[in-house]
Amino acid sequence: MGSGDDGLRALRQMGVLVREVTPAEIASGVPGELDVLVLGIRVYETQPQVVAANERILEFARAGGTVVVQYNKYEYPAGGFAPYPVEMGRPAPRVTDHDSPVEILDPSSPVIAGANRITADDFRGWVQERGLYFLREWDEPFRPVLTFQDPGEAPVAGALVAAPVGEGAYVYTGISFFRQFPAGVPGAHRLFANLISLRGSDLR
The domain containing residue 120 runs over which residues? Predict the structure, then answer.
């Protein structure tokens, strides 16, 4: 957990076997029985033990696990916590119009064509915003999968990027799942299910 979100409850409601992993557990290595590690919002700001154990998180991905990092602030790019260089810029990109247009850049991406086929319909009925603290730049092999666009602004592509890491998969997303989960937005749940279903072999 970072500063608190409804991720645990949302995953349980989707039928996922899920438990909270403590920073102390990560410090000694991510538990081997886990398939996916989801980092809560702003975890690199609020959990110093996670910052110190970041290499364990990357080791988990390299060994075949999937890591899903929800939105973090400037500490994330500055700390070099991602497996490949990323930048946010100041101010970091965000999209505040919850009805803003979405463009799917790669319909064949396993993020989009995975357990659930994601379409523009999945981005209807969202609340408050699309997301915040999107990435402005990223190195390959990160690949963006969609863009959002506030009225009168250029499209923003750093809301959701995914990459293979060793044998595993790594995702950064600034999409505001933490707002959509308590509102019961179906498309957000469907997209998040795809993220936790990713495997490194899908992205390679």
Answer: 7-203
The number of folded domains in the chain is: 1
Beta strand pairing call for 66-69 and 168-173? parallel
With b for 16 or more beta-carbon neighbours within 10 A and e for fewer, the 30-44 pattern comes to beeebebbbbbbbbb
Q: What is the DSSP letter of 92?
A: P
Helix, strand, or coil here: 200? helix
CATH code, domain carrying 177: 3.40.50.880
- For the segment 109-133, what is each residue's pLDDT rounded down to a tens digit? 999 999 999 999 999 999 999 999 9
pTM of the model as a whole:
0.97
Instruction: Answer yes or no: is 79 within a domain.
Output: yes
What is the tens place of the pLDDT at every residue in 22-80? Answer: 988 999 889 989 999 999 999 999 999 999 999 999 999 999 999 999 999 999 999 99
